Each structure stands twice: as structure tokens, then as C-alpha cells.
């Protein structure tokens, strides 16, 4: 049985590792369904923001708006 929570956590850890190392670019593709792409982009963006890696000037409300508007609404 596939543990969806564990799969999501492991995939997000892998993405964060690639971004933080800065040795390569990443491409998140909708291979498992279009709804998972904005999920992982949002989680990655929020994780990096919480660690002070990106968008450091944004407040929590502004970050939530950016994530919802850009990653979910504009995605489709």
C-alpha cells in the first residue's frame, strides 16, 4: 500500500535538497495529475519562504496570497 503522506514528504524533501544545493534546476511535471503540480510548487515555495530562502520581504498573509493566486489560481 502506498502511503501518500510519506510519498509527499519524501518528494518535497528531494525538491528542497535540489533547490538548496543549487547545483541543478528542477522541473515539476504533471505526470500524476495536474492538481499535484501546484501542490508541490506551493509546498516548496512555502518551505523555502519559512526557512528565509526566498521572498523574505513578504508577510505571511502576502505569502499565502502569492501561493494561492500564482500557484493555484493561475495554474488553471
Automatic annotation (TrEMBL):
GO terms for MF: phosphatidylinositol-3-phosphate phosphatase activity
Protein name: Myotubularin-related protein 14
Coiled-coil parts of chain: none
Protein source organism: Araneus ventricosus
Record domain Tyrosine specific protein phosphatases: where: 9-43
InterPro entries: MTMR14 (IPR039802), Prot-tyrosine_phosphatase-like (IPR029021), Tyr_Pase_AS (IPR016130), Tyr_Pase_dom (IPR000387)
Gene: MTMR14_1
Amino acid at each position: 500500500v502506498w502511503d501518500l503522506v510519506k510519498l509527499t514528504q519524501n518528494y518535497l524533501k528531494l525538491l528542497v535538497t535540489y533547490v538548496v544545493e543549487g547545483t541543478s534546476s528542477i522541473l515539476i511535471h504533471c505526470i500524476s495529475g495536474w492538481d499535484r503540480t501546484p501542490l508541490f510548487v506551493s509546498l516548496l515555495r512555502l518551505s523555502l519562504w519559512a526557512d528565509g530562502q526566498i521572498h523574505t520581504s513578504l508577510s505571511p498573509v502576502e505569502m499565502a496570497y502569492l501561493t494561492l493566486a500564482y500557484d493555484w489560481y493561475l495554474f488553471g
